[in-house]
Amino acid sequence: MPIARAARRTAARLGAVVLAGALLAACGSSTDGASEDAAGGEVTITVDLFGSFGYKEAGLYAEYERLHPGVTIKQTDTEDEADYWKSLQTRLAGGAGLADVQGIEVGRIASVTQQQAERFEDLGKYGAKALEDRFAPAKWAAATGRGGEVLGLGTDVGPEALCYRTDLFEQAGLPTDREELAKKWATWDGYLELGKRYKAKAPGRSAWIDSVGSLYSIMIGQEKERYYDASGKLIWEDNPALRTAWDHAVEAAQGGLSAKLDQWSPQWNQAFAAGSFATIPCPAWMLGYIKGQAGEAGKGKWDVAALPGGAGNWGGSYLAVPRAAKHKKEAYELIEWLTAPEQQTRLFEKQGNFPSATGAIDKVAGAKDPFFSDAPIGKIFGDAAKAAPVQVLGVHDQNIAQQITNALSEVERKGASPEKAWSNARKGVENTIG
């Protein structure tokens, strides 16, 4: 799966997450008063996103409107981030049809900072530089332009874990305790070895993992350098870490460990409830998706354990204000409020999006989730978020990732040789990015 495939958060609705310890419900902000434009009348702030950021579902828009009389927030969104990005590029080039707030996937933020900075507002003009200490250093740095411009404020991050079906594990004679499993699959070799044991006694037609593309994506998310090095040089073909992720995905495909499901497809969605696979690489945002697809019948059948091979990050987004926005100041005030620790805490509580604001990470440290067998998700994902490498982001990260996962699908579904598939990935990258 491509890292930016932001249908990842499509329409998933999380049940209540039980938080151990008190969570702040305060909605304070440095912009509690009505905006200048709204002072003489009403103002409508338009927000254009992809997938489901969860603001509306968590009640944050309604709360902001209550705190700011005269302000109305109207949101549009596109399910598939690739479609959203294509449309956004067209509108940015034409300078028309843009919302006051635009969402930017983490895999696209380098394109914004390195190639399109002149098309977005420098939020530093509105006081954003004073917010730097709110965010994890990597999250803040990724949205900083070459001239020090602040081109977006961070929303969630994607610390990684593994989600698994305890009922299927038990039927296959495998242990179900999350601590024991974390030791058994401390490495990716250990994870695949356990998968072979599962396959030998797999209940029904279930597979060990949903797709080898998801295995590749979660592994490459553990690396600092993936497709580019720190100097901006393309390194993906010669990057040993990338080839290791590729080789493990190929091994899983050729070993018959995959359910061969296209992520985000109707068949994949149905597989959560049908029990078609026993494990799935699981960034924090995946929790809500699993709940939405597995439904109430899945409660207590799922659990979460630490990831093999160490911490990593897969996904996350930003909120930015285009230069062509109609209400720039009001848009900034909204995104400052939405990305504040208090609101990020509430969003995790309601929707499961793991916060990028450091203060919010501390507040959710005791969170447990009854749907996932009371897994200590606050600790598991919090530890991963703090230990994840600061990743080098390149302009064409998304495009390269898409070509690699397409090639892995050829091995998985068509039985193509790894050599032929790799050659196709190379050609695909060349054709896509030139």
From TrEMBL:
Keywords attached to this entry: Signal
Gene3D superfamilies: Periplasmic binding protein-like II
Pfam families: SBP_bac_8 (PF13416)
Signal sequence annotation: 1-25
Segments for region (Disordered): 412-434
InterPro entries: Bact_solute-bd_prot1, SBP
PANTHER family (alphabetical): ARABINOSE-BINDING PROTEIN-RELATED, SUGAR BINDING SECRETED PROTEIN
Protein name, as recorded: Extracellular solute-binding protein
